[in-house]
Every structure is written in C-alpha cells, then in structure tokens.
Amino acid sequence: MGKEQTIVAKFGGSSLADAEHFRQVKKILRQDPARRYVVPSAPGKRNSEDEKVTDLLYQCYEKASSGADYAPVLQKIRGRYQEIIDDLGLAVSLEGEFEMIEQAFVNHAGEQYAASRGEYLNGILLAAFLGYRFVDAAEVIRFNKKGVFEDERTNFFLSDRLINIDRAVIPGFYGADDAGNIHTFSRGGSDVTGALVARAVQADLYENWTDVSGFLLTDPGIVDHPKKIDIMTYSELRELSYRGATVLHEEAVFPVRREGISIHIRNTNRPHESGTLICSTIRPEDEVPITGIAGKKNFAAVNIAKNRMNAQVGFCKRLLEAFEENDISFEHMPSGIDTISVILPADEYHKKKDAIMDSLQRLLAPDKISIDEDMALVTVVGKGMRSVSGIAARFFTALGDAHVNIKMIDMGSNEINCTIGVSNQDFDTAIRALYSALVE
Ligand code: ASP
C-alpha cells in the first residue's frame, strides 16, 4: 500500500467569517479525506462594510492598554464568535478564554498577543465543529525572544507533534518564544503557517482556500475580467507578487518550495473551480508565453552622468554604496556608457533625498545628477517568453500604438520577466495595451 495522501488546507478569514462558511469548509474537508491538517485565519469580513476580527482586536487592545473604554469593541468580538457557536450549536464556551484575554489586554500583554487571539479562538471553534484535535500554534511555531521566526526549530516541533495526530486544526498567524510570549507574522501570515505545516508533515499538496478563484493574469481594476492563471512556477509567483499581485503572503512560498510541495489556490465559495496551481516546474505543454502582468506606481529614477564612467573601475560599487549607506534597497539599475540610473520607490527617495545627494557627491563626484520622480513599473512575467520569438516586438508595438512613452527597459537574466518604466499617468494604458497584445 502506498503512503496515505496528506493535504494541508488553509482557510482565509472570509472563508471562516460566519457559521455558514464553517459549514462550507466542513463540506470541502469531507470531500477529500486527505485534507487532514487545517489552518484557519480569524473571522474576516462578512460583507464589504464589515470589520475583520483581527482589526477589532488591534483596536480593542489599543483602547484597553491606554485606559480607554474598550468594552464595546470587546463585546463586538465576543459577539462574532458567539454567533458562530449558537448557529452551529457547538457545545463550547469561550467565556473563560475571554476573561483571560480581557485580563491580558488590561495588563499590556502586547499587540501581537492581542492580534493572535482571532486565529486562536477560531481554531478552537473549528476543531470542535470538525471533530479534529486543536493544536495551539504557541506550542509549535517558534520565535526567538526578539520575535524573529525560527525556521528549523519550528519544523522540528511541528513535525514531532503532528506525526501522531491524524487530523488537527493549527491556528494560523502566530507562534511563541520559549518564555511563552506570543509573536505574530506580518498581516496575512496564516498563509505562512499553512506552508510551515505542509512542510512539517511532508504534505502532498498545500491548499490555500480564499475568496477568489486563483490569481488573475492582471489587475481586474484595470482590465475587465482578465483571464485566470491556471498554473505557474514559484519563480513566476515571486515576480508577480513582488510587483503587486497579492493573493498569497510572500513568505509562504519558501517552506513549501524547498520541499517541492505545490500550492493550490482555491475558492471556498466556488470549490468546483480549478483555481491556480503553483509548482516548481511546469511541463512544456502547459507553458504559456505570458503568465501575468503586474505593476506598481510611484518610483523615482536617480540619473547620474559622468564622463568616462565606463573606464572607472569600481564606479558601480561606489554608486551602490551611496544607497547602501542610506539603507535603501533599489529596484533596477539601467546604464549607458557615461550614464547610469538607480530606480527606487519615490517615497523612499523623498524621505532621504538630501542624504542620498550628499553620499553621491562625496563618493562619485558626478558631472550631473537629475531626478525623474514620475515613474511606474510594469512587469510582464512568463517562463514561456524564453522560447517564443517575437514577443518583444509585440510588446513594444503595443505600447507604441497606445502612445505610451517607455522611460526604462529591464529584462531579467532568467528571461522570465521584462520590466518597463513609464510615466505614472500611462500606467493603466500600458497594462491594458500589453494585455490585449500579449494575452487576448
Ligand atoms: N488574521 C490575520 C490578518 O488579518 C492573519 C491572516 O488572516 O492571515 O492579517
């Protein structure tokens, strides 16, 4: 007999926002017995006007720890869970938990402790509803006392604990240090917990259930009904997320990527839809030339000119030093013979512009420095671009036809991305033109 299949299923906040969604989650889990480990978020928004429990917890803690009246917010939070308990008829009471939480808030237990209670309480309810074991993330997800996540220790604790538990609910988003203080990942961090559990149990698949049917090829706010991405590699996902396409927490990729576990993004409300599969490699027949188009506005280009720059050994090193000493991580560095530009987020440039200028003058003594503060970056990502000729021609013709002026071009050495810089006001036009030329 082969090894029993194991799937880790993470459900986002909107997938667990109320009793009806709890029922839907149970239905999904029952459909495949391999779905043995479940990672829940805190209850999210039930509609667009609603509030996420995590946000309410931050608010409540802020009030409680500063001596303001926190009772109404706490009551709201309690109400969210009580509604789920009542509707599902669960034989669970969270009264004792809420007493402890209130005490801890008043005694300044910390913002991260406060935020983590959303997942903790939801985990208790979900485990009771499913009949799965509840494993408190504070016992298995390890941070050091400075709040830095501990990768290998977590893997050890998690796998050691879960090896003998057939079905468990492990709340997302938080863990603890050895003194028992709670630490959280950054917002959206339940995705990370799901990936850590998948790694620890050597899952066959990490399912990430959310309220969209996967990654769209581009921003639906710019292009009407863009196509969905059916399948992509981890590297393509990295490129797209970096450029602003957000469905999954950035850090969620690493634990599963190293083990070759695929991530499947699925829609809780439309489980029959195929979602987006993210894996290490794609069979050539599944490859499409363009996987996605993403971008961000508001970058600045610092352009430096110096005669015979090309002959000066170490010029680039000193240029980067100027940014390093101001603690700036740059995006691109296109160059000519006697000119070079560094592209960085415009707000970062604004905050530090005097210091940057001082460093550049001191380290490089340039002939001229000019700044272009109006740049948006648009990236086209696609592993298939490597093997198809004529893509670049279509790319630039589309932009030319749409009267978009290109200020910068950068093609990554792995040939899976091509980034252009355009003026902020051309951002939407550029994305629409690229989408219709390369995808439609
Ligand atoms: N509940 C947390 C948040 O709202 C973590 C998560 O949902 O992943 O950010």
Briefly, what is this?
38% of the residues lie in helices and 19% in strands. The chain contains 14 helices and 15 strands. The protein has helices at residues 19-31, 53-65, 71-88, 95-106, 111-130, 137-140, 151-162, 190-200, 234-242, 253-257, 315-324, 346-364, 391-401, 427-438, and strands spanning 7-11, 35-40, 133-134, 168-169, 174-176, 182-184, 205-210, 231-233, 262-267, 276-279, 292-305, 339-345, 368-381, 408-411, 417-422.
Characterize the structure shown.
There is one protein chain. The protein is α/β, with parallel strands linked by helices. Helices cover 38% and strands 19% of the residues. The chain has 14 helices and 15 strands. It has helices at 19-31, 53-65, 71-88, 95-106, 111-130, 137-140, 151-162, 190-200, 234-242, 253-257, 315-324, 346-364, 391-401, 427-438, and strands at residues 7-11, 35-40, 133-134, 168-169, 174-176, 182-184, 205-210, 231-233, 262-267, 276-279, 292-305, 339-345, 368-381, 408-411, 417-422. Strands 3-4-2-1-7-9-10-8 form an eight-stranded mixed beta sheet, sandwiched between helices. α2 (53-65) crosses α5 (111-130), α7 packs across α8 and α13 (391-401) packs across α14 (427-438). The longest helix is centred in the N-terminal third of the chain and has 20 residues, at 111-130. The model has no long low-confidence stretch (mean pLDDT 94). The site of aspartic acid (ASP) has 13 residues, from α8. Aspartic acid is lined by residues 13, 41-42, 52, 54, 118, 172-173, 187-191.
